[in-house]
Amino acid sequence: MEERLMKVDPLTTQVYDYISKKIQNGEYEANQRITESEICKSIGVSRTPAREALTRLAGENLLEKIPNKGFVVKEFQEKEKLDTYSVIGVLDALAGSSALQNLTESDLVKMEELIEMMAVSIKYKNYSSYLKLSNEFHDIYITKSNNQVLVNLLNSLRYNFMSKSYTSDNEDELYKMLTYSNNQHIEVVKFMRENDLENIERVLREHWKTIPIAEMK
C-alpha cells in the first residue's frame, strides 16, 4: 500500500522528514540505495521535492551521493560517530544555558518525572522506551532555548544520526552507562534549579561523551 503525504507546503520538508524518519528507525540501513523514483512512488510526490529532500540529506551527511548510482544511506565510521556526539554535546550545552531563563517550574517538574520514568525503563531493560523518554527530556529545554536555528541543528543530528534503541554485547556495561547517563539528567535539573550556568554546560557536554559506549542501532 502506498504511503501518501498530505499535499501541504513545504512539500520538500515533508519528504525530508519521511526519509529521515526511515533512516532513524532503521528501515533504511547503512549503504542502502534510495532513488528518486522509489520516493515518488512510495509517497506520491513529483521528482522535484524528492530530489531536493535527498540533496538536503546528503548535505547534512546522512546520505552519500555516488556518481551513476544516486544516493545511499551513509555509514558512519567510529571517528565520525565520536565527532558527531562531540558536536551534539556543544550544541546541547548551548541550548541548556540559553533556556535557563525561560524554563518554568512546570518544565522542571516534567523533566524530573521523565527521569523517574527513564529509571524504570533502565531497570526493565526497555531501551527503546529509555531513548524516547530521553529525547523528550532534552526536547523540553532545547525548545525553550528560543533559538530555532539551534533547535533545527540539534534535531537534525539527534533524530537522524541517532537510531531508535541501544544495543550492546555487554548488557552489564550498557546498564551502567545508561544509569550514569540518567544520573547526569538528575544533575542537569539540579543545576537548572540553582541557575548554575557553568555546571549545566559542563554536564551536558560530558553527557554526550558517555553515549558512544553503547552502539546505536
TrEMBL record:
Signal peptide residue numbers: none
A Pfam family annotated for this UniProt entry: FCD
Domain of life according to the entry: Bacteria
Listed SUPFAM superfamilies: GntR ligand-binding domain-like, Winged helix' DNA-binding domain
Domain HTH gntR-type span(s) in chain numbering: 9-76
GO molecular function: DNA binding; DNA-binding transcription factor activity
Keywords, in A-Z order: DNA-binding, Transcription, Transcription regulation
InterPro entries: GntR_C, TF_FadR/GntR_C, Tscrpt_reg_HTH_GntR, WH-like_DNA-bd_sf, WH_DNA-bd_sf
PANTHER family for this protein: GLUCONATE OPERON TRANSCRIPTIONAL REPRESSOR, TRANSCRIPTIONAL REGULATOR, GNTR FAMILY
Protein name stated in the entry: Transcriptional regulator, GntR family
